[in-house]
Amino acid sequence: MNGAESLVRTLVACGVTTCFANPGTSEMHFVAAVDEVEGMRTILGLFEGAVTGMADGYGRMAESPAATLLHLGPGLANGLANLHNARRAATPIVNIVGNHATYHEQYDPPLASDVEGFARPVSGWIHTSPSPLDVASDAARAVQASLQPPGQIATLILPADTAWLEAERAAVPLPTPAPVPVADLAVSQAAQALASGKNTLILIRGAALKEDGLRAAAQVAAKTGARVACDTFAPRWQRGAGRALIEQIPYFAEQIVDYMSGVEQLILVGAKPPVSFFAYPGKASWCTPEGCRILHLAHPHEDGVGALQALAEAIGATKERGSFAALQLPDLPTGQLNAITAAQVIGRLLPEQAIFSDEASTSGIGLNQATASAAPHDRLALTGGSIGQGIPVATGAAVACPDRKVVCLQGDGGAMYTLQALWTQVRENLDVTTVIFANNSYAILNVELMRVGVEHPGPKALSMLDLHNPTLDWLALGAGIGIEASRAKTIEEFADQFGRAMREHGPRLIEVVLV
Q: In 10 A of CB 276, how many CB atoms?
C-alpha cells in the first residue's frame, strides 16, 4: 500500500466518499488509487473554481465534507474564490493538494510555489505530510478538522513522494466534534433581555436556519414580540410552506441602517452584527444603532438550535404557534417577462423540497417574495460575494441530494466565471435546471458606480460593465457543453420551459432574455 492508497482508504473510512477533482502530475497516484479502493466517487471539474464551488454546495447540503483534488499551488489558487465563499458559509471541505516531491523542490521547478501561503487565507487547518507513513493519520485529522463546528476548510498538502512511497495502513476515523452547548447564563441573559420589553431583533445563522431552529425562534417571537431575521446571504435557509416566516437583512448600507433603526437589543445566534458589504462615501459601515445592546445567545461554534429551544423553554414559549408560511402559490403572471414575473413563474412551479442555488444578483429582485409561501425548499446564497458560485454550488448540491430538484438562478456575468460546471452536470446526469438571467451586463456594478459617487461615467467606464459586443449566446454555449438549452423571451415561453424542466429529470439550461 502506498501513501495515496492509504489516503483514499482513510477518507472513505472517515465518511468522505465524494471527491471533486482536477488533478495533475503530482496527484496521479491518488488518481490510480481510487481504482484500488471501493467507495470513493470521483467527479471531474474542468476548472478548479468549479471544483471548489461543487465541494461547497455538496458540504452545505450533505453537512459532511467532500474532498477536492487540486494540482499544486496554481491549481489551489484557481479555486480560491469559491473557497472564500465556502469559508464564509462555514462549509466543511477537505482539500487534497499535491505538491512537488520533497527532494525536487530544491531545484525551484516552474510550478513551485508557496502552497501553504495560498491555502492560509481560506483554511481553518493546514498541514503538509512529511512522510508516507503520516499521510493516513493526517487525512483523518483533516476530516476531523473540517467538521470542527460550525465547519471549516481543512487543507492537506501531499508532496508527490509521500503518495508513491510505501505506507503502513489506513487510519481509523477520529471522533466527530459536536457543537458546544451554550451556557445557562447565556440563555438566562437573553430571557431577561426579552422580558424588558425593549425593541429586540434576533439574528440567526447556520443550523438555526433549518426547521427546528426556525420553529423555536418563531415561538420566542410569538411570546415576546421580538423580530427574527437572517443575514442577507445565509449559507442555507429552509423556506416555504410549513416553515417559520422570518425577515431578511437587506443589502445596501442605508437600507440596513433603516431596517435596524429603533432596535434596542440585538440577540445573535451563530451570526455577527450586520455591516455594509462595501464602504461608501457618506454612508455607514457599522449598521447597528448606537447604544444597541448586543447579546450572544450562541456563538458560531455553539449549538444555536439547542440555544433557541432552551430560550423558548425558559420563557414559557414552547406551546406558542408562531408565524408559519401556508402554501400560497403566485398566479402565473401576464405581460412582459422580467425579473419579477420570472420569479412568479418560479414560485408557482417549484416542486417540493427543491434546492435553490441563488446567484441571480440584480435579477433576483422579487424572488424572496414569490417563493416565501411556495413549496418548501432550501436556499443557498452567495455567502462571500465572489461571483461564479451559483452553477458549481448547484452541481455539488445535486450530487449530495440526488433525489431533489436543484434550481440554479444565475446572472449571465457570474455564469461565465464557472460555466465549466455545466459540463460536469451533463457528464454526471445531475438533476439541475439553470436559469440564466441574460441582461448582458454586470448590472449590479452599474448601480455601484453611481453609489460610490460617479455621476457621469463615460463610454470607457460603461464598456467595462457591459456584456455586449459580442452578445453571449447561451444556446450556443449550451450546445458546445452538451446541455439541453432553450431561450425564453415571453412569460409563456418561460413557464412552458421551466415547467417541463421541473417535471423531467436531468440537466437543463434556460436563458431568460431581459430587455
A: 18
Q: Are 413 and 441 within 8 A, CB to CB?
A: yes
User: Considering only CA atoms, which of 150, 35, 28, 40 is closest in space to residue 86?
Assistant: 150
Strand, coil or helix: what is 424? helix
In the predicted model, what is the mean pLDDT of residues 171-176?
A: 98
Other Cβ atoms less than 10 A from the Cβ of 461: the count is: 12
Residues 6+ apart with CB under 8 A from 272: none
CA 267 to centroid of chain Cα atoms: 24
- What's the mean per-residue pLDDT of the chain? 95
- 470: cis peptide before it, omega within 30°? yes
- One-letter amino acid of 449: L
- Distance, in Å, from the CA atom of 33 to the CA atom of 362, rounded to the nearest integer, reads 45
Q: Measuring CA to CA, which residue among 40, 238, 43, 53 is closest to residue 139?
A: 40
> What is the phi-psi region of residue 65: left when phi exceeds 0, alpha when psi lies from -120 to 50, beta otherwise?
beta
Contacts of 470 (CB under 8 A, 6+ apart): none
> Do 409 and 350 form a contact (C-beta atoms < 8 A)?
no
Which cell is 121 given? 487565507
pTM, two decimal places: 0.96
Spatial distance between the Cα atoms of 282 and 434, rounded to a whole number of angstroms? 39
- Alpha-carbon dihedral sign for residues 474, 480, 481, 483: positive
What percent of the chain is predicted at pLDDT more than 70? 100
Q: What is the pLDDT of residue 189?
A: 98
Closest CA to 372 of 401, 348, 391: 348
* Three cell numbers, residue 79: 479555486
State which H helix or E strand residue 369 sits in.
helix 367-371
Whole-number Å distance between alpha carbons of 363 and 125? 37
β-partners of residue 43 are 20
- List all residues 6 or more positions away from 206 whose beta carbon is below 8 Å from its beta carbon: 90, 150, 235, 269, 270, 271, 300, 304
User: Which grid cell is 341?
Assistant: 414575473
Q: Rounded to whole angstroms, how far apart are CA atoms 364 and 27?
A: 40
What DSSP state is assigned to residue 302?
Answer: B
Residue 264 CB partners (closer than 8 Å, separation 6+):
198, 199, 200, 289, 291, 292, 293
Stretch 176-203: mean pLDDT: 97
Contact 301, 270 (CB under 8 A): no
pLDDT at 507: 98
Describe the crossing of helices 48-62 and 420-428 by its angle, rounded to 10 degrees. Answer: 60
At 252-305, the pLDDT tens digits run: 999 999 999 999 999 999 999 999 999 988 889 999 999 999 999 999 999 999
Residue with cell 510505501: 166
Q: Which of 364, 420, 428, 354 is nearest to 388 (CA)?
A: 420
